[in-house]
Structure formats: C-alpha cells, structure tokens
Amino acid sequence: MLYVGSTGKGVFERFLDNFRLKSGEVLDPQLILGHPQGSKQLNWQYSAPSAARIRNFYRRHRPDLMCVYRNPIVRDAADPGKLERWEKNLADRLRNRGWRVFGPTRHPKGPEASGGD
Q1: Measured between alpha carbons, how far is 34 from 30 in angstroms, rounded to an integer?
Q2: Does residue 91 form part of some domain?
Q3: Residue ranges making up the domain that contains 54
Q4: Full DSSP string of 20-84
Q5: Average pLDDT of 99-104?
Q6: Which pLDDT belongs to residue 114?
Q7: How confident is the model over 22-75, as pLDDT tens digits?
Q8: What CA–CA distances, in Å, run from 37 to 5, 56, 104, 112, 116?
Q9: Fewest Cβ atoms closer than 10 Å to its Cβ: which of 12, 52, 86, 94?
Q10: 21 has which bridge partners?
Q11: 74 lies in a domain?
C-alpha cells in the first residue's frame, strides 16, 4: 500500500514525524511491527488517521516512486486547488499502475473509499 499526501515538509522529515512520540523520541518502524498492540497504545505526536495508517502499514521507503521533479509543489495563490489536483492525479496514476493507494482520487466514491483497511 502506498500513501499519497501533501505536506510542507521534506519527505524524510515528514516520515520522522509519523514515527515521533510526543516526548520527541522517534521509534524504529520495525519495532512497531512486532508489538502486539501495534502502534495504537503509544502517545504519538500525530494521531490523525492517515498517520496511524502509515505507522500500521509502513514496510520501507520507496524513493523510486517519489515525485522529485514536482516535490515540493508550491501553493499558488492564483490556483488554490493545484496541490489537491496534483495529489489526486498522482494517486490515480499509481492506482492505474496496479498499486494499492491510500489517498485522494478524482473519482467520486472511488479507490479512496476502499484504499485502507
């Protein structure tokens, strides 16, 4: 499963944030995989559903799938929907290539609704 989302941070910085506790400690994702409760009982810096999904499904980085030629996409005051459109297009292109993607879609009630477990 791949996660597609936007952030104002670099890829590695955002990755660390997803595995950072409120104490500031960053946990090794491999240690979470073997924990009987997974990551649910820990006091995470980010507790949003997307961050929890990343922690639960993370296996390894896939830099070959990162859009470095578009990263970061700068917000455009003249086109406020640009980031969301590019995010949806990327997620849909990856789905079309056979990837299971959690993220937005251009298709109503499409893969986003069934993208997660």
Answers
A1: 7
A2: no
A3: 2-63
A4: BBTTS-B--HHHHHT-TTTTTTS-BS---HHHHHHHHH-----GGGS-TTT-SPPPBTTBTTHHH
A5: 86
A6: 43
A7: 999 998 888 777 665 556 778 889 888 888 888 888 888 777 777 655 666 677
A8: 26, 10, 28, 26, 19
A9: 12
A10: 44
A11: no
